[in-house]
Backbone:
């Protein structure tokens, strides 16, 4: 029994992998991210010792054989700093992204399922988040609460859910019109059952795609927060850029280039991965009203 | 009739949003560890000033009254006292607004015009080389942190090759406002800010146009035997650009956010660098006031674009 | 039309929208194409007009002969000149088929401006005349209005006016009444009949409703799964249907069931157009299917000039 089930799973997984790998960019991005995650996990082994310890004789050296990416203002090896910095970025990316996805999905499901006033209310709240500039909001939240990583994750997750909610809501609304939902309701199925056994599983694909699509923005936001000095983590990509602000005039380009490049590559990779997922999971030509602009314009009328 | 009621509705929503933002501010103020005492009671200010603040904000009164007083303060321009400058926060902020506008407005204009052109170019032949090239360009820059791009531009064009100034809006030796000097300083930060916003804007234009091209009335237009060029420009474009107008409103929010980061990198003396400075110096009243300012700017621009949209879309004007 | 095959090459597979379709339409004789959704009727119409979305769609075989010219062999620019001028089309959904940001009078006048190079104010005057002849009241005032200010029936009339502006020889009407209520429907149909008479125009009416065909058309083509199953005059089809599918359709019509998606009384569903079954396409649902029906596709058997029936049963007649 379990044998055939696991065989089916393997078959599904391998066909998914085949369609995913048709997009070479997505493939490359996937491997990059895997490498990054592994490096972050095993950073301690790759760079033993206290990488944060200042090494004042080696201050601000350009890239060389001994320090492939140069050293920072305290003489520390930048490559090591970058790899450790990956931890922060990846943790926030997944945690905030996950939070955003969960809250957004729940909101969207409820808006789509209950409709009417609940829908109006949820969407109105989402609208507020859309019209208020997000970064300032997050800035204020994090600045006033104590600026630690947890708060950053919460702030980003809790302000980013509207986009997700909108997508899930429109999908839910479309699903609600289908016959099998009608059947379930007539048979007296409970709301929870409809929500979780029918609405949700049918949308898992698009939820996954949109969640991964929102991660680049999360990474950039988190980097911006660090850049502005809101998180006291010295080993983070954004903060490295902050520090480099005082030094770039002396020509220490490597202090700004490499951390920024890391942010860029990671965000770009998540973007490619989400595109790859989109192509692999949605082979049928589904016409959906994705364009945010059109949706917003529609609501005016 | 339709248009006026539409505008009225939009204004109402805008006002409502401002109230919401004010309330948010108030909530954050009181929910922060230490509460408003910590925020407003800067140890550096004189007891006399402290007494004034206490009275103005009624910090010893029940919370509902405080709320109303706070809102009233927001409306009348009493946004608290800056720690750092020991001036009203409002004055500090308003002094910086022109600089930010001088950066944002040119950038916005450039983003919109080039973005629309790029979007059109990609959509004329979907999935062609141009389309894929422009789309790649777009998400390439979309993933780029604006401050990183700023650094690269600075390092290359200001340090390595001394073509552009290393930051600031006007030269230190300048007396008064010299347009040429300003423009010379403008180029690098504007490039950084524009490139990144261009990316997302052109993608939005493109997707909006693609949706329009799929519509039934485009088939009808073609079925009339109208040359493709006319179909595109007269039928598709007019419909496709409408949502773009709405998007612009949201976009201003994005540009503002980008301005915060860009100004910091380029030491541009506007609201953005003020934000950075006040965060670093823990000048809480100013931070809060800045958030309010940014929100007002965004809400206001949304209102304007909504109104423009209402004028342009016949479905709203004639109903 | 001769041996037309249109396929859509999608990532997921190849859809055989139309296969080896042949039929004749005589000038001045109104012609109806009947079939379920998915039978290929709209694709056929679009192909005649040259409106097929060429990247996924492709005409794999066939010729469409119009006034002696093969439409499929024409260059894009040449086809464009015919389209809208000599052959015009009215579309299915009036709610979305008109451009929402352009004034109605202009949209009608546009056809004239493009094809006959008439200056704008002249064309708009003619447009108003057309609107009046379509039965739109206060045409002069309403020409300046926008599509959303009109009801569905009115919009359909506007579309017809748009199509007729250049006095085309051939008018293709794709489900012109599906989106309308019954009263408006009969008005529009009456309008079509009148137009046919007055302008000596040939009308090809596409629909899924045999009742409509009975009201308007003189000759009929029955399509199923991309194939032309039976073609004949109205009288023949209704009194002596040769193809089992046609018979099934007639039986279901009397039940006055307005189900748009499926004709429930014929059991089964339309076949998968990506992997169609071998042999006759209708065979899985056919009540009189024989063994050879599932292996050999029947050729069209005809006993007169234009009519035919693609069924083994018709072999002997």
Residues:
């Amino acid at each position: 029994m379990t044998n055939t089930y696991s065989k089916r799973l393997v078959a599904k997984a391998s066909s998914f992998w085949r369609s995913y790998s048709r997009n070479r960019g997505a493939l490359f991005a996937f491997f990059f991210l895997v490498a990054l995650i592994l490096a972050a996990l095993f950073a301690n082994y790759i760079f033993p010792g206290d990488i944060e310890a200042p090494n004042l004789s080696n201050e601000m050296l350009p890239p060389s054989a001994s320090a492939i990416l140069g050293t920072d203002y305290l003489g520390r090896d930048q490559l090591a700093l970058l790899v450790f910095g990956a931890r922060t970025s990846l943790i926030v990316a997944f945690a905030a992204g996950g939070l955003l996805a969960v809250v957004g999905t729940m909101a969207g499901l409820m808006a789509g399922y209950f409709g009417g006033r609940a829908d109006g209310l949820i969407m109105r709240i989402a609208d507020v988040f859309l019209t208020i500039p997000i970064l300032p909001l997050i800035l204020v939240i994090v600045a006033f609460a104590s600026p630690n990583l947890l708060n950053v994750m919460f702030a980003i997750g809790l302000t980013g859910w509207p986009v997700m909610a909108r997508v899930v809501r429109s999908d839910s609304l479309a699903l609600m019109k289908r016959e099998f939902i009608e059947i379930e309701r007539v048979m007296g199925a409970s709301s929870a059952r409809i929500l979780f056994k029918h609405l949700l599983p049918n949308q898992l694909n698009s939820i996954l795609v949109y969640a991964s699509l929102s991660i680049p923005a999360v990474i950039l936001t988190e980097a911006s927060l660090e850049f502005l000095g809101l998180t006291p983590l010295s080993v983070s990509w954004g903060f490295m850029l902050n520090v480099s602000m005082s030094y770039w005039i002396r020509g220490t380009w490597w202090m700004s280039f490499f951390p920024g490049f890391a942010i860029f590559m990671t965000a770009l990779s998540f973007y490619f991965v989400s595109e790859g997922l989109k192509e692999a999971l949605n082979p049928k030509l589904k016409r959906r009203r994705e364009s945010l602009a059109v949706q917003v314009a529609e609501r005016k009328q | 009739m339709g248009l006026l009621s539409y505008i009225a509705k939009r204004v109402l929503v805008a006002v409502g949003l401002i109230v919401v933002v004010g309330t948010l501010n108030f909530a954050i103020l009181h929910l922060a560890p230490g509460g408003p005492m910590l925020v407003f009671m800067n140890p550096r200010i004189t007891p006399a000033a402290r007494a004034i603040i206490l009275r103005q904000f009624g910090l010893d009164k029940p919370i509902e009254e405080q709320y109303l007083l706070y809102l009233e303060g927001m409306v009348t321009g009493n946004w608290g006292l800056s720690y750092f400058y020991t001036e009203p926060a409002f004055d500090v902020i308003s002094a910086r607004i022109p600089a930010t506008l001088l950066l944002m407005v040119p950038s916005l204009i450039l983003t919109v015009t080039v973005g629309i052109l790029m979007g059109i170019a990609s959509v004329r032949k979907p999935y062609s080389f141009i389309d894929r090239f422009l789309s790649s360009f777009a998400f390439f820059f979309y993933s780029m942190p604006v401050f990183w791009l700023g650094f690269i531009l600075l390092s290359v064009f200001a340090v390595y090759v001394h073509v552009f100034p290393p930051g600031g809006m006007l030269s230190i030796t300048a007396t008064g406002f010299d347009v040429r000097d300003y423009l010379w300083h403008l180029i690098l930060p504007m490039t950084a800010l524009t490139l990144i916003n261009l990316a997302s804007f052109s993608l939005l234009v493109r997707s909006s146009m693609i949706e329009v091209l799929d519509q039934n009335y485009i088939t009808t237009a073609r079925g009339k035997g109208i040359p493709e060029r006319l179909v595109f420009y007269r039928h598709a474009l007019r419909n496709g650009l409408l949502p773009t107008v709405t998007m612009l409103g949201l976009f201003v929010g994005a540009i503002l956010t980008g301005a915060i980061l860009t100004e910091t990198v380029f030491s541009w003396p506007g609201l953005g660098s003020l934000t950075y400075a006040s965060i670093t110096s823990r000048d809480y009243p100013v931070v809060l006031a800045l958030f309010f300012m940014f929100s007002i700017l965004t809400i206001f621009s949304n209102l304007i674009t909504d109104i423009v949209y209402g004028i342009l879309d016949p479905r709203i004007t004639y109903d | 039309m001769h041996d037309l095959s249109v396929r859509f090459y999608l990532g997921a597979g190849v859809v055989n929208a139309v296969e080896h379709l042949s039929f004749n339409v005589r000038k001045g004789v109104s012609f109806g194409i009947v079939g379920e959704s998915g039978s290929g009727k709209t694709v056929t119409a679009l192909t005649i007009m040259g409106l097929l979305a060429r990247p996924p769609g492709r005409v794999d075989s066939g010729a469409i002969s119009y006034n002696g010219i093969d439409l499929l062999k024409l260059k894009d620019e040449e086809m464009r000149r015919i389209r809208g001028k000599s052959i015009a089309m009215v579309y299915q959904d009036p709610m979305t088929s008109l451009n929402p940001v352009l004034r109605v009078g202009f949209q009608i006048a546009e056809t004239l401006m493009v094809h006959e190079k008439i200056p704008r104010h002249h064309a708009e005057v003619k447009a108003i005349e057309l609107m009046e002849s379509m039965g739109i009241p206060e045409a002069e005032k309403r020409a300046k209005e926008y599509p959303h200010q009109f009801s569905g029936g009115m919009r359909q009339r506007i579309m017809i006016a748009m199509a007729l502006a250049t006095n085309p020889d051939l008018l293709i009407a794709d489900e012109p009444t599906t989106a309308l209520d019954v009263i408006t429907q009969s008005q529009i149909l009456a309008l079509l009949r009148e137009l046919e008479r007055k302008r000596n125009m040939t009308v090809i009416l596409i629909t899924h409703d045999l009742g409509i065909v009975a009201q308007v058309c003189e000759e009929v083509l029955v399509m199923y799964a991309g194939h032309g199953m039976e073609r004949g005059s109205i009288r023949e089809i209704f009194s002596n249907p040769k193809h089992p599918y046609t018979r099934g359709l007639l039986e279901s019509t009397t039940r006055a069931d307005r189900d748009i998606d499926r004709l429930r009384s014929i059991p089964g569903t339309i076949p998968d157009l990506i992997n169609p079954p071998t042999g006759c396409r209708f065979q899985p649902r056919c009540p009189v299917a024989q063994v050879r029906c599932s292996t050999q596709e029947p050729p069209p058997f005809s006993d007169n000039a234009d009519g035919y029936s693609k069924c083994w049963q018709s072999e002997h007649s």
In short: Residues 25-51+77-86+166-270 of chain C form a domain with the Rossmann fold fold (CATH 3.40.50.300). Confidence is low (pLDDT under 50) at residues 255-260 of chain C. Residues 182-199 of chain C form the longest helix (18 residues). DSSP finds ten helices and twelve strands in chain C.
